[in-house]
Amino acid sequence: MTGDIAPATYGLMAEFEHGDELVAAVGRLRAEGYTRIEAYTPQSVEGLSEALNLKPSLMPKIVAAGAIAGALAGYGLQYYVSVIDWQWNIGGRPLHSWPAFIPITFELAVLFGSLAAFVGMLALNGLPRPYHPVFNVPRFAHASRDRFFLVVRSEDERFDADRTRRFLERLEAHEIAEVPE
Hints:
Strand content: 5-15%
Order of helices and strands: EHEHHHEHE
Strand order of the largest sheet: 2-3-1-4
Structural class: alpha+beta
Number of strands: 4
């Protein structure tokens, strides 16, 4: 009985040969009122982020927070050990000799910042994600080599499978495929 049920559609995928064609297609789709658009490219494409109207990334704030936490942890640990817990007056130097604390403070800021960047990137990208519906389209294997792909999600308010397919055909996509869920 389950063979009678049609699989849900994730959206429609259009394939382009060049990045500038992809940016132009995204611009025309946005002008037409589509908002749930995804793009997949083998390399960075200038103007694509603006065309997709992507929000600014949180990564700089995440990395800065990690670096500040690392610097505070490094300095705080050294201060605690030298001034509070293990007070040794060697050669008349002050217990709180802050210039000596700078190298470790800097190194821990770099360490915590890089760890925050790694974890933040994974979290913001939704990784690890071993499955995505676009992997169901055989031609999508070219997304990491030499082709540029555009997906209009079926949850878009303006999405109608036939009308959207005709619109993508007018954009002169190399190939258009339905992306099953």
